[in-house]
# Entry
Amino acid sequence: MVYMNFKGICKRRTVNMMNVRKVPLIIFLTCLTLFFSMFTLYMTMFNHGPPSEILEANRQIVLKPKNDVDLSLNGEEADEDEEVSESVESAKRWQKFVDDNKYVAIGDVYNSCDDKDRITLGKAILLPNEETGGLKVRTFINITLEKPLTEGEFLVDVKYNGKDLYDNHWEFCTIDENQEVKQVFCPYKPGFYTWATDKKIPKFIPKGKYHTRAWLNGDDGKLLTCGLTTFVL
# Structure
């Protein structure tokens, strides 16, 4: 009969119960540290604060027109002999629209992206978004189309704290075909149009200062509108 000695083959291991108890504690502390790190990051970078505070902060930003248009009306009419350019007149009309409605304006829409003698076609304002509890940008535009608009191209360029952040382009007439609420209804015949469009500001974008330029080209590639905005979150 053969006897086998398993001693030394299956060694008995002693488990340190203190180490076992430490494992769940280490996991818990790691998760807690991760949670507080993410919370701090969110509060620092992504928590925009109440819409009322953001609106007030943007109300303090004075947008100075680059074409040196004096928007102050002061209840005074221009002298009959004084010729007022269409550039100045259009800027004053839209500023009066903003003042009368106590809007927070964050930008303008022009007939050109060039600074000199451009005509103001509209305003971009910041509003509370009651559906999401955040904010949205509403853009008002009055425009006269000289030619039909059946396709067009819409382009956007965004800068964050002075650095390039995002740029893109779309065919204008299909830009919102996958949206629940349509705001573009092509084709547009030649004539006068009043547009008011809303764009939600995502809650996940970081706090900071944003500059945007958005422009619309017609079917022939010629610029129709150029919108410039500046706002802070």
In short: The chain has three helices and eight strands. Helices lie at 17-46, 51-59, 86-101.
